[in-house]
Amino acid sequence: MPVSEPVLFVEYPKCSTCKKAKKWLDDHGVAHVDRHIVEDNPTAAELADWQARSGLAVRRFFNTSGMRYRELGIKAKLDAGMSDEDAFALLATDGMLVKRPIVVAGETVLVGFREAAWEEALL
């Protein structure tokens, strides 16, 4: 089922995966509205909404390969039972903590770029 309205594409423009994902959207004619994840970081409420729609665990919204994630020892905090509410609040403080890219298309929310999943959800 092709997406008819522009999707929200939350990205960090310097990220190579985001560049690849954006090219994929363009190549497949998927209209999108770009949002810079650092300049316009998702709010805790947006993240909670997206997480609910995605069906993914909260920890999947963390950029586990990022320096900030390691500096702040977030894995240990998550493993110790950080609440979802606290996790969303923390994610909302710094766009570099958030896994990217994120695509929001109606009730569908995709986190990270996996071509097969994007094809299934967006084309």
Overview of this structure, please?
The chain has six helices and four strands, in the order βαβααααββα. With 123 residues, it is an alpha+beta fold. It is globular, with a radius of gyration of 14 Å. The termini are close together.
Overview in brief:
This protein has 123 residues and is of the alpha+beta class. It is built from 6 helices and 4 strands; from the N terminus they run βαβααααββα.
Secondary-structure map with pairings?
Blueprint: E1 7-11, H1 16-27, E2 32-36, H2 44-54, H3 67-71, H4 74-79, H5 84-91, E3 102-105, E4 108-111, H6 115-122
Helix pairs in contact: 2-5
What fraction strand?
A: 5-15%
Low-confidence stretches: none
Order of helices and strands: EHEHHHHEEH
Number of helices: 6
Distance between the termini: 6 Å
Based on Cα principal axes, name the global outline: globular
Our Rg estimate from Cα atoms comes to 14 Å
Q: Portion of residues in helices? A: 40-55%
| Class per helix and strand makeup | alpha+beta
Strand arrangement across the biggest beta sheet:
2-1-3-4
Work out the number of β strands.
Answer: 4
Can you tag this structure with a few keywords?
123 residues; 15% strand
